[in-house]
Specification:
Blueprint: E1 5-11, E2 16-22, E3 25-32, H1 37-42, H2 46-52, E4 58-63, H3 66-72, E5 78-80, H4 97-110, E6 114-119, E7 122-128, E8 134-141, H5 143-153, H6 174-200, E9 205-209, H7 213-221, H8 226-229, E10 232-234, H9 238-247
Parallel strand pairs: 1-4, 4-5, 6-9, 9-10
Antiparallel strand pairs: 1-2, 2-3, 6-7, 7-8
Helix pairs in contact: 4-9
């Protein structure tokens, strides 16, 4: 029997993000470092590797990295998703395709309006209204990028690990001071954006995604009202929900 197989490949600033669908249903997702094409196929789950040996498949490419885009466009089964494919309104030409697709996935999965906070290499905050119209948002360096910038841009400050909980605000050591400075500042900024969004759209949900999405959500929940905490969700698959909504 011929099986309908689609593979999603989202190329971010630091990693490949993969997902595969069988008969329109999302089966699994995984991340890898940048790999050559042959080794990328070796990273596929075993059940997918077995299926693609005997069944045709397509790879739907979502990329914000031009040199990586050029590599994957060489494969005949690759089809690139572009901004014009996403049925949202008021999108500006330089909006990242991954950001737009995650926003679409959030709206289709959790209803419009919705606010998406993506904790990736770049931390983005993006809102869309009940008419699928982009309201706007913000971009700043992600948590790990901020930590690395201090370590690489100074002579004495170390690289630190992200704590699992929001650290004390007032610290008496260097590691704690770095954690406090970055995490309290970022958390306060996200809280301010979130509260402003809730004033505009009181029924909206707030969806966290991205590699550090869970940590950001945990930090933020420390200082939010119960009502707003109940509107917050974590969904690592937003982008691939958006891709599914386009494909199926």
């Amino acid at each position: 029997m011929n099986q309908n197989i689609q593979i999603g490949l989202s190329i971010g600033n630091s990693r490949y993000h993969w997902a595969w669908y069988l008969e329109t249903k999302l089966q699994s997702s995984w991340d890898t470092k940048y790999l050559c094409i042959d080794r990328s196929f070796d990273s596929f789950p075993l059940d997918l590797r077995e299926i693609i040996k005997t069944h045709p498949f397509e790879i739907y490419l979502i990329s914000v990295v031009p040199n990586q885009t050029e590599i994957w466009q060489q494969l005949p089964q690759v089809k690139q998703i572009i901004l014009a494919d996403i049925p949202l309104f008021n999108l500006y030409p330089t909006l990242g395709i991954d950001r737009a697709l995650s926003l679409f996935g959030a709206g289709e999965t959790y209803a419009y309006p919705v606010l998406v906070i993506d904790g990736g290499t770049a931390l983005t905050i993006t809102g869309i209204d009940e008419n699928r119209r982009l309201i706007g948002g913000a971009i700043l360096p992600g948590l790990r990028l901020q930590l690395r910038s201090l370590a690489t841009g100074t002579a004495a400050l170390p690289t630190i690990e992200l704590p699992q909980q929001l650290p004390p605000r007032w610290s008496n050591d260097t590691v704690g001071s770095i954690a406090s400075g970055i995490l309290h500042t970022v958390s306060s900024g996200i809280r301010d954006f979130t509260q402003d969004w809730q004033q505009l759209y009181p029924q909206s949900q707030v969806i966290f995604t991205g590699g550090d999405g869970e940590l950001l959500m945990r930090y933020l929940q420390t200082n939010l009202s119960v009502d707003l905490v109940n509107r917050i969700r974590l969904d690592r698959q937003l982008l691939f929900h958006g891709l599914a909504a386009i494909l199926f």
